[in-house]
C-alpha cells in the first residue's frame, strides 16, 4: 500500500533540507508530488494541479514524456558515464554540441556543458576572465548585471543575481559584481523626453564609465527577466546594449537559462530584437528537466582566443558532457523541433496573455499584466494609480498563491508578482483554466 502524504511528509521533515529551506512554511503547506502527465502534476493525496511554472521554468515538453526516459535508459545501457575532460569525449556530447550550433546564434559554435544554470554562470565568469587574460587585459574582471536578474545561487552567481533577498544570509558577496537598474517598463522612470528602453540601456554605459572600461569584463542579463518577475524589455533596449558593449569592448552575455529553446516564441530570446551576444548560458529546457544539464556557448572570436592559450584551462566539472544527459537533451531537442515549440509558445502565449489581460487588467489591485511567449506575470499593487506595493507583512502574494492552489493551479511568485510559464504542451483548455484560477484567487484575496 502506498505511503500516505502525512507519512511521506514526516519522513521528509526528518531527513531533507530543501532549496529555499524554511521548515515552518514547508510543514504547514507542502505537496508531495507523485506523478506528472502533460501540464498536470498529482499530489500524494490525489489532488491534481496545473503546473503553472513548468516545474521551475524547465519542463517545456511536459511531464511523462516516455521518449525521454527511453533515451536515458538506452544510453545508460550503452555507456552510463565517462569523463568529459580533455582527452576524453563521447558521441552524444559531440552530437549535442553540433546540434545546438545549428539552433542558436550563427556566431556561437563552441559549447561547454555543465549540470545546470548556476554552474553555467560560474563557467562564463571564469571563461571571460581567462579570455581577457589571454588578450593581455587581466584587469577586466568586473561583471555588470541587472536589478531583478537571476543567475543562480552559488556564491559568485548569487553576487550577480540582482534579487536582493538572496544576499543577506551570505554576505559579503564576491567583489567585482555590480548592478544597474532593470529596464522594467512598469517601474523604470526614464528622464523626460528619452526612450525608456534606450535610457535603461544607457545605465550600462554610465556604469562602465564610472568603473572604467578597462576593468569591466562582461555584461550579463536575461533576454526576458524570469524569476525577477517576467520583465520584458522595450524593443530598443537590447540593440542599444549591443552598441554599448561593442563600443567599450565588454563581452555581452545572454542568460538563456529560461528563454532558450523556444519559451519566448523564438528558439533563443535575443532573436526577437535581432541581436547576437558574445556568449550564452543555457540549462532548464534543454532536457525539459528530465536530467540536470546546462552549459555555455561562445562565439568564434572567444573560442579562437581560448584555443590560442598554451596552458590548460583549469575549469572542470565531473559531470560535464555527461553522456546520459546529452542523450536526453538530443531526444528533447527532437521534440522541440518536431513539435515546433517556438511557434506553439508564440500562439499559446498570446492566448494566455490576452486571457490574463481580459480577466485582470482592469482589477483595482492589478498594476501590470505582461509577458512574451509562454512567460507571463501579473503584478499586484495596493494602489493602481501610484503603483504603491502592499506591505510585505500583508503577504498578499502568498495568499493569492494559496487561493490559486485551491483552484488547481500551482506556480511561484516574486513578492506580489505572480509568475506563469506553463509547459509548451499545455492545452488551450488548460490555459483558460489557468486564467480562471488566477482571476478567482486575486478576487478572493483582494476583492472583486
How is this structure best described in words?
It is a single chain. The chain has 448 residues and is an alpha/beta fold. The chain folds into two domains: 31-52 and 340-446, Aspartate Aminotransferase, domain 1 (Alpha-Beta Complex), CATH 3.90.1150.10; 68-338, Type I PLP-dependent aspartate aminotransferase-like (Major domain) (Aspartate Aminotransferase, domain 2). It contains 14 helices and 15 strands. The protein has helices spanning 5-15, 23-28, 54-57, 66-78, 91-101, 117-134, 155-160, 196-211, 237-247, 300-308, 323-338, 341-360, 396-406, 428-446; strands at residues 33-37, 40-43, 48-51, 108-114, 142-146, 177-180, 216-221, 251-255, 279-282, 294-299, 366-371, 376-380, 409-410, 412-414, 417-420. The strands form three sheets. A seven-stranded mixed sheet has the order 4-10-9-8-7-5-6, with helices on both faces. The longest helix has 20 residues, at 341-360. The termini are far apart.
Task: Looking at this protein, list some descriptive labels.
14 helices, Aspartate Aminotransferase, domain 2, 15 strands, alpha/beta, Aspartate Aminotransferase, domain 1, 448 residues
